[in-house]
TrEMBL record:
<dbReference type="Pfam" id="PF04076">
    <property type="entry name" value="BOF"/>
</dbReference>
<dbReference type="InterPro" id="IPR016052">
    <property type="entry name" value="YgiW/YdeI"/>
</dbReference>
<feature type="signal peptide">
    <location>
        <begin position="1"/>
        <end position="20"/>
    </location>
</feature>
<keyword id="KW-0732">Signal</keyword>
<protein>
    <submittedName>
        <fullName>YgiW/YdeI family stress tolerance OB fold protein</fullName>
    </submittedName>
</protein>
<dbReference type="InterPro" id="IPR036700">
    <property type="entry name" value="BOBF_sf"/>
</dbReference>
<dbReference type="InterPro" id="IPR005220">
    <property type="entry name" value="CarO-like"/>
</dbReference>
Amino acid sequence: MKKTLLIAALLTVGCTGVLAQQGGYTGPKSTGVVNVAQAKQMRDDTKVTLHGTIVKQLGDEKYLFKDSTGEITIEIDDDDWNGLAIGANDQIEIYGEVDKDWNSVEIDVDSIRKVNQ
């Protein structure tokens, strides 16, 4: 019984040591705040943060977003609004990822917030 407990303890310590050596953040890298022109040039699935305004609604969950460098379509799922009301003059920050197709670039928004003016 003592031998079994000792082996189990050694295995636990050994496994923990291996896991600690291989630990760390493995998720996608954030590029920080970028503008629309930069976002349009980025690779698919790149995480981005943009500041600007929503100009108008294009469809069900699609909106036209604008900053000083241009416009881009963004997609905001209904559950990502979290009760936030945004007007055409409100400065916002969106965080999401670039969604590139053959002939279009959009931002799939994960979170949105008003920015103090």
